[in-house]
Specification:
Blueprint: E1 16-23, H1 27-35, H2 37-43, E2 50-56, E3 63-69, E4 75-86, E5 90-95, E6 101-110, E7 113-122, H3 125-149
Antiparallel strand pairs: 1-7, 2-3, 3-4, 4-5, 5-6, 6-7
Helix pairs in contact: 1-2, 2-3
């Protein structure tokens, strides 16, 4: 579901995609689905994509390098740098390759469930608009895949 961005993000509203999903799993388990690269590689990306991780250093300043393999056989190298990691509450990274953006993922405990927030900010409104058709659906698919992967997390 889309939601209103946080009040401190109002200046980025024209450049951002904001999604959220209530996932039926405790926050620590949902956070682990991101922080454990074995789990993350199974769900990261839109439907039909797989990933090969080359580096995953989950700490501020750490690198995340991987290749997404598309269902059409194309390979998409990705490189990101972690900006902030507050376990099990929040992960912020800057995506450096292809489309430049900053993504903040929040994990808010809601009893035995977790509200995952997804706030993705691009450099310009024009860039956001140019890729909106792909990104909106891809982000929702990512959250679908996360909700499925948490079932495999112990």
């Amino acid at each position: 579901m889309n939601e209103k961005p946080p009040a401190d993000a109002e200046s980025t509203v024209d450049r951002a995609f904001v999604h959220s999903r209530l996932i039926d799993a405790p926050r620590e388990r949902v956070f682990k689905a991101f922080s454990d690269p074995a789990h993350l590689a199974r769900w990261w990306g839109p439907n039909g994509f797989t990933s090969t991780f080359h580096e995953f250093d989950l700490r501020p300043g750490g690198n995340w390098r991987f290749v997404m393999h598309g269902p059409d056989g194309a390979n998409y190298p990705n490189e990101s740098v972690f900006v902030e990691v507050v376990a099990p509450e929040r992960i912020v990274f800057e995506h450096m390759s292809q489309h430049h953006f900053q993504l903040t993922i929040t994990f808010d405990a809601r009893g035995a469930k977790t509200l995952v927030g997804w706030h993705q900010v691009f450099d310009t409104e024009a860039e956001r608009q140019r890729i909106a058709k792909v990104v909106v659906e891809a982000n929702e698919q990512n959250l679908d895949r996360l909700a499925t992967e948490v079932l495999n997390v112990e």
